[in-house]
Amino acid sequence: MSEQINRRKFIRLGGAATAALTLFPSIVPSSVFGKNAPSKRVNFALIGCGNMGRSDLENVVRGLSSEGAYALAVCDVDRHRSADAVHDVNTGYHTNACLQFHDFREVTRHPDIDAVIIATPDHWHALTAIDAVRHGKDVYVEKPLTLTIEEGRLLVAEAQKHGRIGQTGTQQRSGRYFQRACELVRNGRIGKIKHVEIKIPANNRYCGGTWHEEPVPEGFDYDFWLGPAPYAPFTRQRTHYQFRFILDYASGQTTNFGAHNVDIAQWALGMDETGPVRYEGYGEFPSTGLFTTPTAINITAHYADGTVMTMRNREGDSELSIRFHGQTGWIEVSRQRVSASTPALLKEQIGPGEIQLYKSRNHLGNFLECIRTRQAPVATLPIGHRSTTICNISTIAMQLRRPLQWDPAKEEFVNDPVANRMKSHAMRGPWSLA
Amino acid sequence: MADSEKQSKAQPTASSPKADAGRVKVFNWTPSPWEELRKLEYGADHTFANTVQKLVFAAEPEEFAALEKRLIAVLKDSKSTRTAQEFTCRLLALIGSEACVDALSPLLVDEKMTHPARLALQPILGEKADTALRSALSKLKGNAKAGLIGTLGVRASDRTAAPLLASILNDTAEPAIVREAATLALARLQINPNVEAHTL
Q1: How far is B57 from chain A (nearest CA, A)?
Q2: pLDDT of residue B4
Q3: Which of the two residues, B42 and A8, has the higher pLDDT score?
Q4: B146, B184, B188 ranked by CB distance to A429: nearest
Q5: Could you give the dihedral angle defined by the CA atoms of residues A202, A204, A208 and A210, in that order, rounded to the nearest 10 degrees?
Q6: A291-316 residue pLDDT tens
Q7: Domain coordinates in residue numbering, chain B
Q8: Angstrom distances, CA of residue B165 to CA of A127, B124, B140, B177
Q9: CB-based contact (8 Å) between A232 and chain B?
């Protein structure tokens, strides 16, 4: 786990050094040191040109351009999507140079590409990321890190083996409110944590009880889109965006937003290298129709130290928050705010002798910086794997509707062979986890 | 499961127009989910397939063998649709044992069913599954063959497959995708001899 060791070393540098690294580009123009010189430019490629991918791409083209990031190529099995992304890049740079690829292997083997942003549907995350690290690319992988637990284990191992930098796209770790809340919790400002209460969105847009095969749109390589997933006829709602409500490709909001909020819980609890040991899940799954992810989510997970984490659908339009209930009060954090049972808590300083968490204010920018420094980013692949694992176990617990014991060290269910078989599955050829 | 079948058998009498004439219907007849599963089609209502899946999810280990037997019967039933067979393979992936290998072997060499068959076979530990997978190697080509090789690699249990994989690796007539799969599988077999499949 070289990334974890590096990260620990990085954190031990202390707040000042960390802040200096983080702030460095904004204090001193990078051009002074020639960061933008072609030899020091970091060439990015985007694989998967949907909503998140295009947003990440914009961050590279507009947000990080002055820091030496350069979007060299885009790739998608939907030619129209990659063409739109090419247009974005060329418009941003006022050039006509962006490369357009259809097959991710052309990207991962391209000698001029340094780093890959992977924003494909979830069932493609592991294969593309593993291929990228095996071919010497650093990877930014959108959350959830992988579709299955075994995929995550292999990705972490391969990135370590090949010495690649990996950032999980759990960008809340680079959010001021989240970092502040986690630091207060970690330093015991509300005493020992008894309960972490996570709210995530409701699942599934409307989908009927039956569906019909439709013609595959021109320019869309549907067979490649399916990739490792079981064959199924094309229907529009199966693919772009709504794939996340079909268990062959994703796990709904349990892994979509759950991956974000569970990640913050793990950070605040100091559990980045482990996770809960017992799970109970009660989900309501559609009995028919295209969508198969649960329409209601209710998870209770128990850490070995007695801390309980619950994850449920929010009711109405309440915030998608994480509330930490401690012995002496509570702290709640969302993308909109951080609040506490005692507001004065929020003004307290974290002293030099206390735990200083990693400070990042731009998730992709932090990745870029770490590509150069070869230090660990704020959301390493092992960290992303652990938080994604919690979400994936939650889905399994809801399906099996029985308590599950989990051994975080061995990454195995205890005495539940069916649950263990659900950690992975055979992929459709030619793809595999070999 | 058993209740619904009893209801199924009772249905012709209880709900036939003649029998019901002038009487209050005493219960709502429910089809057998196992029979309905055989008719499964993409896009159609799959409530009853979902019921069978719930039975598998909820089963105690001592019930696996009986459930597996029923799933094998669906696989072997000539009236079962391809979609039903695919769905059945997914359930065998959870509880299947060596007992289902013979039923899966013919599907393994059917280009359209080879992946569902591997879904079921990949986690089944033992020589019988190893042999079935190895035997299918020469009967597949292209992506299907590469996928099968990948399964041999992920299982990492059949060392006797190594010479076969080596010959595929060196066969210039094989497409690159198949040879690459052989390279990765051989690496897995050589560096990770520990069996990763999960026994029931």
Answers
A1: 5
A2: 41
A3: B42
A4: B146
A5: -140
A6: 999 999 999 999 999 999 999 998 87
A7: 1-9+27-95, 127-200
A8: 22, 21, 13, 13
A9: yes
